[in-house]
């Protein structure tokens, strides 16, 4: 699963940086290019929850293969896009079904124990991040060739087809599709409120059989089941976790929103240096993903405390950047921010799965992706307003949002802490 995740982001990151240049070459205006980009984000926003829940119903193998193949179709169509209309059409299957990494994370959650989950998720994120670092370099080289964008798109589609073959070859079995230690970890612990449990709870022993039977259900029955599960999570008490995720996502996006422009205005640094600094941070983020094992052991696998401390560190580092008097303070904040954000991103996912339960891991990860998508929509608007006052406006606003997230976590401390582990108390 680590290899497909690496190849996934490697292929995508080859194409994405070149898309604006390509659509402009097709004669699209800045407004049309922006609208198409926004439509993709909106499709991701609404589809992630449904696709994640669908993977809980029909099984990881069927849903993951479907998403990979339909994403490959989208990038193949992108490679044939000679008009703006074809370009827009090619983004539809990708916008709806490009949730391959989320389903892979849900599958990993099924396969490993709660104790090992942060370590495995950290390594998974590190593998995919390496692909994201290398992809733009290869894509930039290929685009120099004749018809480079089309070749890059076809190569990306081929990578997705290769991923489909790798996923098909995985040693699937009913025993492996449910978390072997999930029942032990959840004895005496309810994942949701009673109402949510009635809609969401699937016993581990019947996961494989139910997923297999669901393949033969009519699409209408599958849609009704998805809607019931979404209603269940809407009525659960996970709102604070998703709110923390939203606030921290927006805070980090505000930090990066005007990074290059702010460095140029504040310190006279050229955009090239800002690009190097962001690549440096990405590389450190990969290292942080590999260090999650020792970190979780140091905290005795208390995900709540790790998340609280990493969020506090993130807030402090954004404040340091906003008030930096020299470029060296910016470099210092970027160095440690790469660690804190990587650790926090992994811990918030682990906390969602710990509280929500592995039986609905696909839906929980889908809802989390939708929350992050909301942040991507809101952050540019807030950044634009804040920049009217000061180049330091966006990160300063991010500090305020991060503080609110920390206060919410502190207010709900008793809810998550139970015998040193992150568990939701019995309803």
TrEMBL record:
Chief subcellular location: membrane
Name of this chain's protein: Major facilitator superfamily domain-containing protein 9
Zinc found in the keyword field: no
Record's keyword terms, sorted: Membrane, Transmembrane, Transmembrane helix, Transport
GO terms, molecular function: transmembrane transporter activity
CDD domains reported for this sequence: MFS_MFSD9
Gene3D superfamilies per UniProt: MFS general substrate transporter like domains (1.20.1250.20)
Parts of the chain that traverse the membrane: 62-89, 149-170, 238-257, 277-296, 317-339
Membrane protein topology class: Multi-pass membrane protein
Family according to the record: Belongs to the major facilitator superfamily.
Species of provenance: Aptenodytes patagonicus (King penguin)
Gene Ontology CC: membrane
Residue ranges annotated for the Major facilitator superfamily (MFS) profile domain, each copy included: 1-417
Coiled-coil region(s): none
A Pfam entry, by short name: MFS_1
């Amino acid at each position: 699963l680590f290899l497909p995740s690496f190849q996934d982001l490697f292929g995508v990151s080859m194409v994405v940086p070149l898309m604006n240049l390509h659509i402009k070459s097709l004669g699209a205006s800045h407004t049309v290019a922006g609208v198409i980009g926004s439509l993709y984000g909106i499709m991701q926003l609404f589809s992630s929850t449904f696709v994640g829940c669908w993977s809980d119903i029909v099984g990881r193998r069927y849903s993951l293969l479907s998403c990979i193949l339909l994403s490959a179709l989208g990038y193949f169509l992108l490679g044939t896009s000679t008009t703006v209309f074809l370009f827009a059409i090619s983004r539809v299957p990708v916008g709806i079904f490009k949730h391959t990494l989320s389903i892979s994370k849900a599958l990993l959650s099924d396969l490993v124990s709660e104790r090992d989950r942060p370590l495995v998720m950290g390594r998974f994120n590190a593998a995919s991040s390496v692909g994201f670092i290398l992809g733009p370099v290869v894509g930039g080289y290929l685009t120099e060739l004749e018809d480079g964008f089309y070749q890059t798109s076809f190569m990306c589609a081929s990578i997705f087809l290769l991923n489909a073959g790798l996923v098909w070859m995985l040693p699937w079995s009913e025993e492996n599709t449910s978390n072997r230690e999930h029942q032990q970890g959840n004895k005496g612990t309810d994942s949701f409120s009673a109402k949510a449990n009635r809609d969401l709870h699937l016993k581990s022993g019947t996961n494989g059989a139910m997923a297999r039977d669901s393949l033969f259900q009519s699409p209408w029955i599958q849609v009704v089941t998805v809607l019931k599960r979404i209603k269940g999570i809407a009525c659960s008490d996970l709102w604070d976790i998703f709110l923390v995720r939203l606030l921290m996502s927006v805070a980090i996006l505000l930090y990066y929103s005007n990074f290059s422009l702010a460095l140029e205005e504040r310190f006279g640094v050229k955009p090239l240096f800002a690009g190097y600094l962001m690549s440096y941070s990405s590389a450190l983020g990969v290292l942080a993903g590999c260090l999650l094992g020792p970190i979780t052991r140091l905290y005795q696998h208390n995900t709540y405390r790790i998340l609280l401390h990493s969020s506090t560190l993130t807030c402090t580092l954004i404040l340091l950047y906003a008030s930096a008097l020299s470029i060296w303070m910016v470099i210092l904040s970027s160095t440690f921010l790469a660690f804190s954000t990587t650790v926090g991103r992994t811990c918030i996912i682990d906390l969602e799965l710990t509280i929500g339960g592995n039986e609905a891991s696909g839906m929980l990860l889908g809802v989390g992706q939708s929350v992050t998508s909301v942040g991507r929509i809101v952050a540019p608007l807030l950044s634009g307003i804040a920049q009217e006052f000061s180049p330091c406006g966006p990160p300063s606003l991010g500090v305020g949002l991060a503080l609110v997230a920390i206060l919410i976590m502190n207010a709900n401390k008793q809810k998550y802490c139970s015998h040193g582990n992150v568990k939701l108390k019995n309803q």
